[in-house]
Design a protein that fits this description.
510 residues, alpha/beta, 6-stranded mixed β-sheet, 19 helices, 10 strands
């Protein structure tokens, strides 16, 4: 599709007009983290407001004689904090603060109602255990009903007014090659996003939540006066300064895989753009921000973009605390599993006779093999004739009991023994079989880098992506694993644990 320069500029103006004013001072731009902070702050404020609206009149009508005004206010504050903690943890585990979910009216409302249901049950449990606030079930229902009305109203405002109209980040992409094309497809909610929830939750006007591409910059003569991935090529690098001054983008994104091949002329105009106050970033950096994974196909041989080599004192303390927590949770998990053994054994004997446990060799940290322990969920000798193959959706080898065990992730419980032994951790990349490790290492760059940490019972890839059944799926999961390895710490560990709870409660295993 070839366009004249006038048509190309006009098309870019039409594309940018609803979202991109001529100056940056007339609009408010919020980054991903700031939007999540806005969502959580308003949500928590409305939940606490609903709580106070019902509780304060009860306090004014009559306080228990045992409590003075100050003590009673402290009790209200403590209960309010408990309430907000329950809401925040439940909301994160159910995906309420995923920006693409928040941009969908129906999904956002559904998750608000689901999170409020958990809050309702928690409040009912609290008033049964502790009667200090003198609340009854009618008061609890009133709190949750008022909170639901306020939260749904706020979420409607966010989804309709803010997510789709008010706060997009505009970008100019330098490089209309493979990296630039994939970046455009990602921001437009294209088919490169795999099973991730970004795939089917896209904002209107072809833009994933929060970003709008103004156009490409590319020096290739064949790409001039044309479109790439539905986005206009506005000109060459010599016109970059003029274009950014005209459209005032929030970011200039460099989408060139091999940055060593950047010509001096392009480097000079990029530096000039930075000197004019425009933010510069790279395609991998923006990809990480949006997708929360490492784009291994677009970082070339830049190992620093895929891995972190930090070995500071803080990271050593983190590793020590992780191991201590692994021992405590592993021990508790093994004890918790004991009463379940006879029940699962009996049900398995009825529906799928065979051993209770299933042992399989997996590859652990530093490539060392170990025997992983699971509750058997498939028929006996499931791979006798087929050999090592990936499990598929509705796999006929899975027993009726095994299907339930997999959906609830109960089949993974015996791995607490592996965690207690130090072969695994609570959080980390899922351990793969040696046969597949060798196969995948030959086809996927950086694959063996996942063995730099202990494998985990759950991980970032598990809560962000579905089961793998192909090399392509495994490559996507590796991107999530590398993201976790690069940024592992208390924050992302907490996110994984909360999302894992949502997976278990929602029967999302396979």
């Amino acid at each position: 599709m070839n366009l004249s320069r006038a048509q190309r500029i006009n098309a870019a103006q039409e594309l940018a007009t609803p979202f991109i004013p001529k100056t940056t001072t007339s609009r408010l731009n919020l980054r991903f983290s700031e939007r999540k902070l806005l969502l959580s702050f308003v949500d928590l404020s409305l939940v606490f407001l609903s709580f106070l609206a019902i509780v304060l009149p009860i306090i004014q009508i009559g306080q228990p004689a045992l409590f003075g005004a100050i003590q009673y206010q402290e009790v209200v504050l403590i209960y309010g904090i408990i309430l907000l903690t329950v809401w925040l943890c439940t909301g994160f585990s159910m995906g309420l603060y995923n920006l693409t979910v928040a941009a969908s009216v129906l999904k956002s409302i559904r998750l608000v109602i689901g999170t409020m249901a958990v809050l309702l049950v928690s409040l009912l449990a609290i008033i049964q255990i502790e009667r200090v606030l003198a609340l009854n079930w009618v008061d609890v229902l009133s709190i949750c009903a008022l909170g639901t009305i306020l939260l749904i109203s706020w979420r409607l405002v966010y989804a309709i007014c803010i997510a789709k109209w008010g706060l997009p980040q505009s970008v100019v992409v330098v490089g209309a090659g493979e990296s630039g094309s994939e970046l455009a497809s990602m921001l437009r909610g294209g088919g490169l996003l795999g099973h991730n929830e970004h795939h089917d939750l896209r904002a209107e006007y072809g833009s994933i939540v929060g970003y709008k591409i103004i156009g490409f910059i590319d020096d290739d003569p064949q790409k001039q006066d044309s479109t790439v991935a539905g986005i206009s090529v506005l000109g060459g690098s010599s016109e970059l300064v003029q274009i950014v001054n005209k459209y005032q983008p929030d970011q200039v994104v460099l989408a060139i895989t091999n940055t060593d091949s950047i010509q001096p002329g392009l480097l000079n105009v990029l530096v000039e753009c930075r000197s004019l106050g425009f933010e510069l970033t790279t395609m991998p950096e923006l990809y990480e921000t949006v997708m929360q994974r490492i784009p291994i196909n677009h970082i070339g041989t830049n190992i620093g973009a895929a891995l972190s080599n930090s070995r500071s004192g803080i990271s050593r303390l983190y590793e020590f605390c992780r191991r201590l927590l692994d021992i405590l949770i592993g021990l508790q998990g093994c004890i918790m599993m004991i009463p379940m053994l006879p029940v699962i054994w009996i049900i398995n004997r009825i529906y799928a006779p065979g051993p209770l446990f299933y042992l399989q060799e997996r590859t652990g940290k530093s490539g060392k093999p170990f025997q992983i322990v699971k509750f058997r969920s498939m028929i006996v000798d499931a791979e006798k004739f087929s050999g090592a193959v990936w499990a598929e959706e509705d796999d006929p080898r899975i027993t009726p009991v095994g299907k339930f065990l997999r959906q609830t992730r109960l089949d993974e419980l015996p791995q607490f023994w592996n965690i207690l032994k130090g072969e695994m951790s609570i959080i980390g990349p899922r351990p793969e079989r040696p046969h597949f490790v060798e196969l995948l290492s030959e086809q996927i760059p950086f694959y063996k880098a996942r063995h730099s940490v202990k494998p985990g019972l759950t991980g970032w890839a598990q809560v962000q992506y579905s089961y793998t059944s192909s090399v392509e799926d495994t490559a996507v999961k590796l991107q999530y694993d590398l993201f976790y390895i690069k940024y592992q710490g208390l924050v992302i560990d907490t996110k994984i644990l909360l999302k894992t709870i949502g997976v278990v409660i929602g029967f999302k295993g396979r």
